[in-house]
Amino acid sequence: MGQLSFFSAEARAPRVGDLAGLLCGPGRALGFARGRAARVSVALDEPGRGPALVSAMAERGVEARVGTCAEKGNPEVTTAFRTDLTGLAGQWLRSGTKVVPDDFAPDGGVLRLWALAAGRWVESGYVLGLDPDAPDTHEPLRKALATAGLPATLSAPKAGGPALRVNGRRRLERLAELVGRAPTGVTGRTWPAA
Predict the structure, then answer these.
(1) Domain-located, residue 116
(2) Could you report the per-residue pLDDT of 24-75, keeping only the tens digit for each?
(3) In terms of pTM, does the model score above 0.85?
(4) In CATH, what number is assigned to the domain containing residue 45?
(5) Which domain holds residue 120?
């Protein structure tokens, strides 16, 4: 793979801001107590993602638990309401609607959590799942990925989306470099290895 990128997940310490990766995908932020506390939750399509995601969040100093999504009945990882999540929630919410922050640029830590929550291989490409309930975030996230050196195409819900699909050997190598090694227990089917 060569030299480690400055933007790689392994090039710097994990931080709370990496939870933006959950919000790139199907994650949700919810404010409480007039913005003095917030929590982040993400519904998962596979139960096996839960423990790895909880572990990754713990590396960032954020305790989370795996439960069941009341709306959909599938596994969900949820944090408690915390004051250190208010900034993140404030960036991603406007009038209760999920938005992509202005000048958002995903780095390795953000991409790592996005891949853990909603990434998977499809044919010869890797897709990062998007929030079907927040379609206005799809195009800004596609542009943000391109800015990070990962041009992607938007897949419609009928084509396994909504998701952003990364294709091509060089782009997939770059994605693998940015997200780093697969966490323990994460399979090759869901992790973007080079």
Answers:
(1) yes
(2) 999 999 988 677 899 999 999 888 899 999 999 999 999 999 998 877 778 9
(3) yes
(4) 3.10.28.10
(5) 9-179
Total Cβ atoms within 10 A of residue 40: 26
Tell me the three state secondary structure of residue 154: strand
In whole angstroms, give the CA distance from residue 111 to residue 116: 8
CA distance 174 to 48: 25
Angular region, 149: left φ>0, alpha ψ -120 to 50, beta rest: left
Choose among 138, 137, 190: nearest CA to 163: 138
Res 3: pLDDT: 44
In a domain, residue 170? The reply is: yes
Residue 108 lies in a domain: yes
Query: What is the 3 state secondary structure string of 38-54?
Result: EEEEEECCCCCHHHHHH
Number of domain units in the chain: 1
